[in-house]
Write a structure and sequence with these properties.
GO terms for molecular function: copper ion binding; cytochrome-c oxidase activity. This protein has 174 residues and is of the alpha+beta class. The protein folds into two domains: 34 residues; 121 residues, Sandwich (Immunoglobulin-like), CATH 2.60.40. Helix content is 20%, strand content 32%. The strands form three sheets. Strands 1, 2, 3, 5 and 8 form a five-stranded mixed beta sheet that branches. Strand 6 and strand 7 form a beta hairpin. The longest helix is centred in the N-terminal third of the chain and has 27 residues. The radius of gyration is 21 Å and the shape is elongated. It starts with a helix and ends in a 9-residue tail after the last helix.
Length: 174
């Protein structure tokens, strides 16, 4: 079988471009800390309000014994709950998400925080937010007519400011 030289060149160029794209994606994932979800944990979306972990009083950031923060949030048409929260910079954060109804996506622009939230599963993402400031938390998966209004706000403050805001009653740093 004879393959024309021009066809060989175009085939090589096409495979080279595809290889370049794969290399860029892999390099970007490795250097920007982007990882596929590996925490497969199921939950009954219809009974979230009865679960201990995702009960209304347990939503938002909570300090772990190791000094990190676990942030529990619920996504539902058309909002993230809690609607606003304050988090410390330069701290290991573990976001745990569940959906009340349909597939949602969550993304914090200018960070590596992005994942899909599938009903019946707990989505978990670990990250560190390095810069203080206000960040929008957006739904990036079309979830219905109110999708454009599905957002929340994350305020990132210094560790010391966060500690001052979250110290137990009767405790002082003096």
């Amino acid at each position: 079988m004879h393959i024309d030289q021009l066809e060989k060149k175009w085939a090589s160029i096409s495979l080279g471009i595809a290889g370049l794209f794969v290399a860029v994606i892999l390099t970007s994932a490795l250097f920007h800390g982007i990882h596929a979800p590996s925490n497969v944990e199921t939950i009954d979306s219809a009974r979230l309000h009865l679960s201990e972990e995702f009960a209304e009083d347990n939503l938002g950031p909570q300090r772990n014994p190791d000094g990190g923060i676990t942030v529990r949030m619920v996504a539902g048409r058309y909002g993230f709950y809690p609607k606003t929260m304050t988090l410390p910079a330069e701290t290991n954060l573990t976001f745990r998400w569940v959906s009340l109804d349909v597939i949602h996506g969550v993304h914090i622009p200018m960070t590596n925080m992005s994942t899909m939230i599938v009903p019946g599963y707990v989505a978990q993402v670990k990250t560190v937010l390095h810069h203080t400031g206000d960040y929008p938390l957006l739904c990036n998966e079309y979830c219905g007519m109110g999708h454009a209004h599905m957002w929340s706000n994350v305020k990132v403050v210094t560790k010391s400011d966060w500690d001052d805001m979250n110290k137990p009653a009767g405790v002082s740093h003096e």
